[in-house]
Amino acid sequence: MNRKIKGIAASSGIGIGKVHLIGKEEFPIALRKISLEDIPPEILRLEEALIKTRRELIEFQKEIESNLDQDHAQIFDAHLLVLEDRILIEDVITRIKKDKVNVEYAFQQVAKKYIDTLARLNDEYLKERAIDVQDVAKRVLRKLLKKEEGKPSLDIKDKAIVVAHDLSPADTASLPKKNILGFVTDIGGRTSHTAILARALGIPAVVGLARLTLLVSPQDTVIVDGTEGWVIINPSKQVLNEYKEKQKEETRAKKVFYFLKKLPAQTADKKRIILAANIELPEEIPLVLDQGAEGIGLYRTEYMYLGRRDLPTEDEQYTALVNVAKKMQPNSVIVRTLDLGGDKFLSHPEIPTDMSPFLGWRAIRFCLARPDIFKVQLRAILRASKEKNIKLMFPMISGIEELRQAKEMLIEVKEDLRKEKKVFDENIPVGVMIEVPSAALTSDVLAKESDFFSIGTNDLIQYSLAVDRGNEKVAYLYEPTHPGVLRLIKMVIDNAHKEDIEVGMCGEMASEPLCAFLLLGMGIDELSVPPSSVLEVKRLIRSVKFEDAKTAIDEALGFTTHKEVEKGATRFLKNILGSKFNKIIKS
Ligand code: PEP
Ligand code: MG
Question: Is the CB of residue 540 less than 8 Å from the CB of residue 505?
Fold first, then answer.
């Protein structure tokens, strides 16, 4: 009772409920001894499973060839070769005969031996073969066990706390939100996309709990404290009541901010900034409007592509974009072109996951390599820009050449639309996300050819500090106030202003009140935050003076560690806010 485990606070709020455990795909295989006469039928079952798997892979390969291309379809050649590997098959048959064991058991043991041997070798090519064998082995075992393709069960009928080893952004997006009281995952960091989505949906979440899935079972009750980052398994009555009280208090505190909804986001000495919201799904728009956000500072359009086996059509994307643009009038909507890769993958067409996905074939790199997919999206965005409040933004730009290539593609698409007499905004602003250190360092160059910047600190921090944003083991190093990060941000803002373009921030850092204060001091023009953080950040903005923020950042830039920066800024704010400090910073 009352087992308390510390994780990473990923989405504030308190959730209390029964556990809904989403397991990894597992194959619990029992060892069954067989008699001499059972041997031939067991071998026959093996052959049938191999044939069925082969058929399935060929089907899959054809599907990919028609939807994607031959190169990707060829990946499955390696899988097919595994199925034909006589040594492996003979090994399984020998085990069935010699040890008189069931085929599933024999197959699993042999496959495991192969995988372990290959994975241990000091050869990248053979290591990859281990992954092929693993994938094929799963498919064969599914056939032997008559199991369907292993998707976690996302069908949640009663209100519950979802506990999973990991949840992909696609799975998170497709969960029945009304029944989710909280999210808890073994892995992940504060800016992994599952955490971001939980915040967007206003669902309490704690991530990076290491082995929690092994410690709970479906009958358990858990408390998820997404504000402080605790999970409590089977709380006592007393603890339960304390948290219920805390839950009520948080709801009350949120309501207190509501009066700010219609007030402008300006400092006490009248420095006005734009306070916008980030969205992943159009369903978030009612909350965005309810919180009084002035536009969408980041629309993560890749969510339209996730969790489905086909690609969204131009018309489907156009309709979604026009709807969002219309609802947000007269404010603007910054549509980011698709940022697939990293921790967001297409279910289909099957794009192989990179060894280091965050450093791999992601975002603009993927788009420039796949104009067939990219141009469909650019057409949809341009057509929706007839609403006149859409701005377009490219993610993961690492230097001017990439920006020029992307703009070149945009020009081609504009030309096509003109020929087809389709209406669009000829002057649609084109901005760049600054989230790769090389982009920050060359922001003086990029600013000359961009209409605006938006700083994506979720990635900028992970790339500049070399800290995987989704890895709980290095989460302690993920520091927005690291002096290196602050200097990069300052450089980007100054370079944007030298070229007279606006610069915003859409990374999660913008929603942390202490950071927002320092960003104000640097002269940021726009902050774009999760809808549920809009009022909290507005409260901070309206409580401070721009002149004070400038002094605070000057001081902060002189510090050498993130701890000094945080201590210094906290001290500064305590001085100017007095008794209001706790309410504003710790809400
Ligand atoms: C960022 O990197 O800060 C950002 C906003 O983009 P995303 O979180 O979608 O990578
Ligand atoms: Mg990013």
Answer: no
Q: 506 CB under 6 A from ligand 1? A: yes
Amino acid 350: pLDDT: 46
DSSP per residue, 454-489: EE-HHHHHHHHHT--TT-GGGGGG--TT-HHHHHHH
Sign (positive/negative) of CA torsion 77, 82, 83, 84? Answer: positive
DSSP 65: H
Instruction: Note the pLDDT tens digit of each residue in 357-413.
Output: 889 889 999 999 999 999 999 999 999 999 999 999 999 999 999 999 999 999 999
Ion ligand 2 neighbours (CB, 5 A) are 435, 456, 459
Closest C-alpha among 440, 433, 378 to residue 410 = 378
Question: What's the pLDDT score for residue 344?
Answer: 75
Q: What is the pTM of this model?
A: 0.77
Q: Which residues does the annotation mark as catalytic?
A: 193, 506
268 CA from centroid of ligand 2 (Å): 32
Q: What angle do CA 407, 304, 428 make, to 5 degrees?
A: 30
Return the bridge partners of 183, or none: 162, 205
Residue to substitute in 172, 191, 436 for testing ligand 1 pocket (most ligand atoms within 8 angstroms of CB)? 191
Burial 529-551 (b: 16+ CB within 10 A, else e): bbbbbbbbbbbbbebbebebbbe
DSSP secondary structure, 289-351, as one string: HHTT--SEEEEEGGGGTTTSSSPPPHHHHHHHHHHHHHHHTTS-EEEEPP--BTTB--TTTTP
CA atoms in the 13 A half-sphere facing the CB of 252: 7
CA of 154 to the centre of ligand 2 (A): 27
Whether 273 contacts 291, CB under 8 Å: no
Spatial neighbors of 344 by CB under 8 A, at least 6 apart, are: 168, 169, 170, 193, 302, 306
Instruction: Please name the helix (run of DSSP H) or strand (run of DSSP E) that holds residue 207, with its range, or none.
Output: strand 205-207
To which H or E segment does residue 107 belong? helix 103-120
Distance 456 CA to ligand 2 centre (A): 5
456 lines ligand 1 (CB under 6 A): yes
Ligand 1 and 457: CB distance under 6 A = yes
Q: Which domains does the chain have, with CATH numbers?
A: 3-21+159-168+179-252 (3.50.30.10), 36-145 (1.10.274.10), 276-541 (3.20.20.60)
SS3 401: helix
